[in-house]
Structures are given as structure tokens and as C-alpha cells.
Amino acid sequence: SSSASSASADAGRGAHAELSALLGRLKAAQRKSGAPDYDTRIDHLDKLEKALLARKEDFVKAIGMDFGTRSRHETLAAEVMVVVNEIKHARAHLHEWMETESREIGWTFLPARGEVLMQPVGVVGIISPWNYPLQLALAPLVGALAAGNRVMLKPSELASDTAEMTKTLISEIFEPDHVAVVTGGVDVADAFSRLPFDHLVFTGSTRLGKIVMKAAAENLTPVTLELGGKSPAIVGDGYAIAQAAQKVMFGKCLNAGQTCVAPDYVLLPKGRADAFVEECKKAFAEMYPLIGSNPDYTAIINDRHYDRLQSYLEDARDRGAKLIELNHKNETLDPNARKMAPVLVLHAKEDMLLMQEEIFGPILPIKTYETLDEAIAYVNDHPRPLSLYFFEHDQKAIDKVLRETMSGGVGINETMLHVAQSDLPFGGIGPSGMGHYHAREGFETFTKKKPVFYQSRINSTSLLKPPFGSRIDFVLK
Ligand code: NAD
Q: Do residues 309 and 300 lie in contact, with contact meaning Cβ atoms separated by under 8 Å?
């Protein structure tokens, strides 16, 4: 094993040297060309949109290969459409975002001027995960390109067909020193994260987020970390249980629960659990009449993740939880196809794996609370989540939850859809991440807001130069 690990260290060093050289070429090209103007950036966005739409069926196929089964609709709606909407939004607002801002100057410095110049940071690195392998690679790319940067992208090796298709798409429309796609496994990812980018976006687990941030710190590279966690769904007293169940099951079953913003667990008012379970059964059967042969119901990405989910269920069962499998047609599901029927979990306890770890699959623990304060306290006793969902019509209760909890984003009376909004910033807080992309905030993430002070021809700051006398006493009066 020592020769294997030194071979992998060699491979790591090799990858690092190659990637360093590539980054060097992008940086040199960036210095040479300077910041692209508005028309050039629009042209980049147009090209990306056109190529992506032309290749959308190729991505349906590639992502389908990576998952075994991946709903075509999910790929078109949650990957292609989200990216296209990001492009459209950036295009519509780019002019306003790029505009130099004029700022106020203190009266003692007048008639000088102050401006903030929007400048691309330079070369942005993007490391993306497998669960929405196209969206989570290209949506940050849109922000980085709109802001005028060059980009190196490292897609997940767990979605390797998509990674190759992304490489093909990008190489058809961008020069290799403009946007470069780098493929490979953990060695390459590790070397990639050590490069002195001007900004690094990492989407993935909280555990790896820490490793990436450490590597970036060595270069003082600023990071945007899009991480995970356990996103709660709280059902309020005044909300119809059937509707809440439909919306929670929608969020839990999309991509078979392999979504960073999927509702991880539910908090229900005491006494409503049985009704909620019945409504979840109905909602699932309505959305997915079949499981095994249903092309709309996505498979678990690989055996490791399938086994991980099974181990959560085993652990919960062993510790006395009640598991309710939503397999209404009693289908025999082949573990090799990795289609997993959703499982509702009652009497989940804190020390169970599925209450400790982000679930990232179609398992839904259901807990109950007596007062809204208790539900809020439960959320606040746990790491700050990426999303929080609250089902309630009473605005006072909504305001209370909004003010008293902290999360990356919030959906009121809906799951997931806040992420599909191009004009809402997206990002976690604490262990669910830091920084934002999407919307103007995304443009700003990849932009240096450079303050510029213009002295006037009539130099007024002589006021501040020695000999001082007592002028400052006069100003401070
Ligand atoms: P992951 O953390 O396993 O891997 C993500 C990426 O990290 C991959 O491209 C991989 O090659 C790379 N990587 C692996 N080892 C690395 C290393 N040592 N240094 C640097 N990079 C390395 O994540 P995953 O399993 O692909 O995705 C699941 C997790 O991602 C979940 O926790 C989920 O919540 C989170 N997620 C978050 C968001 C978000 O937007 N906040 C979106 C999707 C997924």
C-alpha cells in the first residue's frame, strides 16, 4: 500500500504541475486581453446558451448514463432550464451590473469624486458535484463569465459521462485559455483546489468544503462554498396536511432526494403524523404510479450511496424506528438498478444515523412538536441548514420563523423552487456554506468592486496637509 500511495502522490504532483501550467496560460491570456467589454460578454453568454440548447438531448443521455436512470424531465427542468434562465437573467441585467457606480465624497474632500469600478477578478476555479452535474457546473460558470472572468472547471468524477459531455460542449465554444474543463478523480480535485485561483467555487459536502477552504487559504484564494446539511420542513398548525405532504414529497422525490436543498426531515404539529403519512402515500402514488420501470423516478447514483442509504434504514430499524416504505404496487426492486422506494421514518431518535447525517436520498424522518417555539428551538439546536421550508398562511407565524431561524434560503409553502429563481441569491450559511451566486450577488462574487478616488483639479485636501494649525479642530466641531 505504501507503493500505491506514493504512486498516487506522484500522480497528484503530475496533475498539479499540469494544472498549474494551464492556470498560467489562462492568467496570461487574461492579462493580455484585459476585461472583456459588454458586447464580448453577451457574445459568450449567447454562445453558451445556444450550444447548451443544441446539446440538451446529449446531456439527457449523459446524465442518464451516470445515474442509470435519470428523469429526462428533471434534466431538462432542473439542469438545462435553470442554466438557460441564469443566462437570460444575466444578459438582461449585465449592462446595469457592469456600470461604474458613483459614490458620495465627504464634504471636506470635495470637489473630488468617488467611483466603484466593477472588475473581473481574473481566473475562477469551479469544483462541481455529481447530483446536478450540469446545473452546478454551468450556473457558476454563467456568473463568472458575465463578470468577465476566465474559468477552469472540474466536474465530478462520479458523473463522468456528463463531465466528458461538458468538456465537449465547452471546447466547441470557448478557446482553451478562456474556459477549460479538467476531468479526473480525487487526485485531480485535490491538485485543482491547491491552485492560486482568483476565486474558487466549491459545491459539495461540508466535509470536503473544509479541506478545500484550507487548500485555498494557502493561496489566500477567496472561496464560495456551496455545501449541504439537513434542511428542515416545518408544517404549521394552520396549513392543510395534504398540501404540505404533496410539496414535501415533491422535494424529497425529485432526483430521488439527491438534492442539496431537499427537505431532509419534517417537523409536524403533534397528532398530525398519521394523517401526514397517509397523505404522503397518496402524493407519491399520484406522482409516481410505478417505481422500477418509471423513467420519471431517478435512481441512486451508485452502489456506495445506495448502501449508505440502506445502512441508515438498518440503523434506524435496529434502534426502534418505524419504517414505512412507499411501494404501493409492491414492486420487487432490483438493488442493482438502485431504484429506491421512498421510506417514511417515525420515531426517529437523535442518535440515529439518519438524524446525524445529511440523508441525500428518498428517506423522510417525521418528528412532531407541541409549540412553534419548540420547532424553532429544534432547528436552532442543529447546524445552520442550507434551506428551511415552512408551511403556514399566518403571516405572524411566518415572520417569527423567518426572524428566529437562520438558513441559507427559505421556501414558504413550497420546497426547492427558491433555488430556481435567477433573481434570488443562492448560498448557505455556516456549515451549509458561504457566499452566493445567482442574481446580482453572483456577479458580485466574481467581481472586484474597486474603489477609485478622483482628485479634482482644485485640490481641496490641502486642508489636511501640514502645517496643520488648528484646522482639524474646526472640522471636528
Ligand atoms: P463531494 O463533496 O463528495 O464532491 C464534490 C466535488 O469535490 C467533486 O468534484 C470531487 O471531485 C471533488 N473532490 C473530491 N475530493 C476532493 C479534495 N480532496 N479536494 C477538493 N475537491 C475534492 O460532494 P458530492 O458527493 O459530489 O455531493 C454531495 C454533497 O454536496 C452533499 O452534501 C450536498 O448537500 C452538497 N451539495 C451542495 C449544493 C449546494 O449548492 N449548496 C449542491 C449540490 C450538492
A: yes
